[in-house]
Amino acid sequence: KEIHILYIIKASSEENEYNIYHHYYNGKSWEDFIVEKIVAKKVLNPIKVIKNEANIILAYYRKDNEIVIREFNPTNRQWSKGEILTNTDEEKLFIDMIKLNDTIHTAYCEYEEGSLEVKYKALAYSDGAYSEITEETISNPGSPSYPNLILYSNKLWLTLVELNKIISRSSEDGGKTWGPILQWDDSRTIDFLRYKYLTMVEDNNIKLDFSFGSIS
């Protein structure tokens, strides 16, 4: 029953400087925070917000292509210092993230020798502390985009767009190992979009924020 509004807005006359704003309504009054000033390069990448019990977790691009995770605690009304998720300065695009039990699963795209690849990283989470479990390249090199993480039917799925088709991989052990790349042939012949879900049925076996679907 609390309201959190987060967005990015131009910070100054500098072309690539932006502020991440957070407005928090605690049931009685509004509080305003500037989470951080960030520097965008060619693309202003999206932020990603997930709920963690009473707290919220935010992932975003800071500078030098760093992806950072920070947590807001409504009790003390403070943002954590943050953890740097990535350790390379290669250009990166997109981000998706879901939390399953005590593991945070993340996916993003990164350039390797001129080609994009989808990277997957799992973090163990405990009381605001993060430790890396595994990191893996999940796609072929080329031009993948818009990775989505989906829990469905006891499987962790990662779906993405490659050229004009949808491909996916799935894991039955929470991201430790991944099955082969599956190409959804029907996606070549239909118009599809990336849908964002704003409300979800409470189901412990379904969790997603984005998926691909036909226009019709």
What topology emerges from the helices and strands here?
Blueprint: E1 3-10, E2 17-25, E3 30-39, E4 48-52, E5 55-61, E6 67-73, E7 78-79, E8 83-84, E9 92-100, E10 103-112, E11 115-126, E12 129-137, E13 144-152, E14 155-162, E15 165-171, E16 182-184, E17 192-196, E18 206-208, E19 210-214
Structure description:
- By secondary structure, the protein is mostly beta strands.
- The protein is built from no helices and 19 strands.
- The chain has strands at 3-10, 17-25, 30-39, 48-52, 55-61, 67-73, 78-79, 83-84, 92-100, 103-112, 115-126, 129-137, 144-152, 155-162, 165-171, 182-184, 192-196, 206-208, 210-214.
- Strands 4, 5, 6, 7 and 8 form a 5-stranded antiparallel β-sheet that branches. It has a 5-stranded antiparallel β-sheet with strand order 16-15-14-13-18, with no helix packed on it.
- It is globular and about 50 Å long.
- The two termini are 35 Å apart.
